[in-house]
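Issue: ligand-bound run for flavin-adenine dinucleotide - logging full I/O for the record.

Environment: standard queue, default settings, no custom constraints.

Inputs:
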Amino acid sequence: MRSKMVILLLPILFFISVASAAVAVDRGDRTYDVIIVGGGIAGLTAAFSLADYDLLLLEKEKQVGGRATSGQYQGISYARGTEYLGKPEAPLAEIISTLGLTLREIPAPADVVSHRGRMFFGDYGKARLLIDNSSLGGFNRFAEKILTAYEDYDDIPDTVLRGELQRLDTITARQWFAENSFAPIYSDIYNVTFRGLFGANIDEISALSALPELAFDFEGFERLDEDDDLAEEYKDDRNSTGMYSFDRGIAEIPLAIASHLGDRLRTGTTVTAVERTGDLFAVTCAQAGNTRITYRAKAVILATPSAITLNIAGGVLGEEQRQILGSVSYAPYVTIALFSEAPIFNQAFDLAVPDGLLFTDIYDATWIARHFNAKANTQQSWVTLLYVAPVSYRNTALLSMQDQELMSTALTQLDRILPGSSGLIKKWEITRFRYGYPVMTPGSYQRMTRLQAITGGGLYLAGDYLVYPTFEAAASSGQLAARRVMDWFED
Ligand SMILES: Cc1cc2nc3c(=O)[nH]c(=O)nc-3n(C[C@H](O)[C@H](O)[C@H](O)COP(=O)(O)OP(=O)(O)OC[C@H]3O[C@@H](n4cnc5c(N)ncnc54)[C@H](O)[C@@H]3O)c2cc1C
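Outputs:
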C-alpha cells in the first residue's frame, strides 16, 4: 500500500536512492497500523493475515524465510533448514491456495531407518525393526499408550493442560518411557528422532512435546495379532506418506508471501529497539550502509526468536514476560549440503541414522524433483543433505567447530553408513543455526500458555517458541498474533 506522501514527494525523490527514499517517506510523519519484526514464516503469516491494514514487515536478512530457506545447485533446490510439512491446515493451506502454490506429497518411501547396517523402509520397516527388537505385545502396548494419551491433545495454545497431559508436561520423555518399561529399542530409536526434530534429546524434552511426533508414527494404528501378516497390514501405507513439500522446497511459501507483500516488506533491515512513545511504538532499525531509521506504529508483532525479542524489546515487555522469554533455551543446529555428480543415497527421501553418529538424518534433495519435475537436472547433479543435531542442546560446540573438522568427521561417518560416498562429493556448503530449535523442556507448555495470556495491549509475540517448533505451528502463531491485533483495533 502506497501512501499519498510518496506521490507528493516523487519529484524530489527522483534523484535519490530507493533506500534513502524510504527514510524520507517514513521518518516521523507516517504512522503504520502495525509493524511486524522478522520475516520467518511466523512474521510472514501475520503480515499475510493483516493484508488489509497499513503494515510494514522488517527483516534483517536480504531474503525472507528465516529457518526455511533454500539454495540452488544446477537447477535443483535444496533446503538449508525446513525440509517438509505434515498435511497443511489453516493458515498455511489458505496461503498455499491463495498464492497458487503446487503442494507435492513426498513419494514413498519417505522414511527409512538405518539400524546396525540394515535398512528398514517406511512405516512397515519401522514396525518390523521395533517388533523384532522387542515383541509384538510390546509394540501394541507402546502404540496404544501413545494414542490414548494423544486423544485429549490439541495444538498449542489450545491444549488444555489437565490430568495426564498436565503430568506429561512435567516429566521428560525418558521418564515416561521408563515408567512404562518400554524396551530399550524405543528410546534408542526415538532419542535420535527427537534430536533430529527438536535439537534436544530424550532426557531433555518433555514427554508432552514428544507426544505429537510419536502419534504421527501411529496414525490409524490397529492392534496387531500374532497371525497377522505385517507386510499386508502396512500395505496401504506404502503410497501415502503424509509428508509434503514443493518443487522448490518449503522456501516457496515464504518467497511467495514476500512477493505478495511487495513494498510492505523491507529486507536488509535489522530492528535494534522497540520503545513506546505516547500511544505509539517506535521501532528503530539499522539498514545497509549503517543508516538508522525509526518507524512508528500503533501495534507491533515481534516474530523473532525469544532471545532477540528480549534484546530488542526488553524495555516494553513486562517483568514476567521478560522472565519467561529469558527462560527459553535454543538448540544449535547445522546442516551440510553435499554436491555430487552421482547419487549418494537415492532410495528414499529421509534416511534416519540412529547409530550414534554426528548427523541424525540424510536427505535426498533430488527426491521430489526426480518424481515430479522432469526438467530438473537430476541425472548429473545430486544434492544430499546431512542434518547435524547436537547430542545435547546444551552443547554449542557445533557452532564453533571449524568447517574442516566438521566435514572430515561427517564424511568419515557417512562412509560407514554408505560406503564410498565421500569420494563422490565435489563441493559442500555448511549452514549454522544459532537459534535452531526452542527446546521444549518440562514445563514448556505451561510457560507458553502463560506467555500468551499475559501478552496484549498492542504488542504481540509470534514464533515457534510460543507453539511447537515446526514451520506450520510457527505460521499459526503468526496468524494468532494477527487476530489479536485485529481484536485490539476493534476494541
Ligand atoms: C535445520 C532445521 C530444520 C528444520 N526442519 C523442519 C521441517 O522439516 N519441518 C518443520 O515443520 N519445521 C522444521 N524446522 C523448524 C522450523 O524451521 C521453524 O519452527 C520455523 O521456521 C520457525 O519460524 P519463525 O518464523 O518462528 O522463526 P525464524 O524462521 O527464525 O524467523 C525469524 C526471522 O526473524 C529475523 N530476525 C531476527 N532478528 C531480527 C531483527 N533484529 N530484526 C529484523 N529481523 C530479525 C530472522 O532473520 C528470521 O528471518 C527446522 C528447523 C531447523 C533449524
